[in-house]
């Protein structure tokens, strides 16, 4: 046994991609794979997940306020698309068999507060009601379509550039079609989306479209091929599903199954770097260095990490060393997109006086999207007017920097230190949460306690809550509303995440990069998975997609029984 490495496979990163990889390694047949010999040498394959924080889940962060312990907020990723996202759908519904519900997003009669004008979503197709100087063709296009929105002007330009787009969208062959498109003699992936949109939209048409789709990044200037595909993930008519008990239930359940199969999970283990080493049996292996000064050897390492997390590692070794210019270039082929989520809990659901109860409302204020959060254990309840209610604020890109200015706590280098562990030199005071009745039952349920801890560990400043409250009142057309009694937030641009999601840059061929990034150096046992370098960016599906490439193509595992052909 002296010749054995400490572990056979070390998975670094306990997000959905990392814990999924560990679980698959220990619950799949190994015959015919590279791992069979490793299992034979030890008697059982040894897999360990190393996570820098104190929780499994990464950017899937579910939370519960003690004031509303039966309602789960999603401070991170919150939903999946079916049937297009086959891996996560199969995992949630066929393997873990978790209860789910349909998310309500767009509701007729909800608010669109644009350029200081309070409109309803039903007004968005009426050009005369919109505070934008649209050109005559845009006015005619909106007026001719029942239920239209300026957000559809993006699709209008795209279908004019690519006439067969809609047909391929309906047959599920959109990406294949986009790969054949050339604009002005260059393939689509060599263009920025905004550059293309500018050729077919008025300036105010673009502003109106970006405001009413809700996400600034969907009208941004990243890779036009991939962002076009992403745009249609959020188009009208898409069906979203949410896990009743919180999306974090998925990695939590996988972690339990991973440990039951003999896997090890090590918390607060921050990887600082790694390099190749010769193992005791003479084979190629990996030596990992951690922030606590300890080293661990493995036959293979899987970096289940996004771009920024990898950039924070020491720049040495076969993969990260300065001589590996190709990998550095590949690493920089995606942009991390800042995302901000905040939840405000009120003593009553005062917004219902403005005629809104569920779904989302939109604005061009920095809060951008306002979701009237469903209540109850099944995730589909609507609170009564005088009952406590929860609002989610959700925005991206430049809007995130607005909220950064109202969060003056000293930055931490790593997210292993909770935001709540702040230094004493804060500029802004922390919001004073109202004391809630004791939730003693939670202590007997580890997952319920985890969700309460997640909420507690993500406090907002008083100034941030004040501004969120002010903008919410403004967009709902009210002068007075009760102060919130609880709040939580997360800015996902913080280290080590770098952003909430990622998008491919212009000139990146994502179909090729998808494969290359999973093993940065040929013949060297280092693998990479995660949402960042997938062709399902912004979704948990992307993390599972790249994990399966590592598992099946690099390590030789069979596909899961629940995978669709």
UniProtKB/TrEMBL annotation:
Q: Report the record's Gene Ontology biological process terms.
A: auxin biosynthetic process
Question: What name does the UniProt record give this protein?
Answer: Tryptophan 2-monooxygenase
Q: Name one GO molecular function term.
A: tryptophan 2-monooxygenase activity
Q: Which InterPro entries match?
A: Amino_oxidase, FAD/NAD-bd_sf, Flavin_monoamine_oxidase
Please give the PANTHER family that the UniProt record associates with this protein. FLAVIN MONOAMINE OXIDASE, LYSINE-SPECIFIC HISTONE DEMETHYLASE 2
Q: Which family does it belong to?
A: Belongs to the tryptophan 2-monooxygenase family.
Record key words, sorted: Auxin biosynthesis
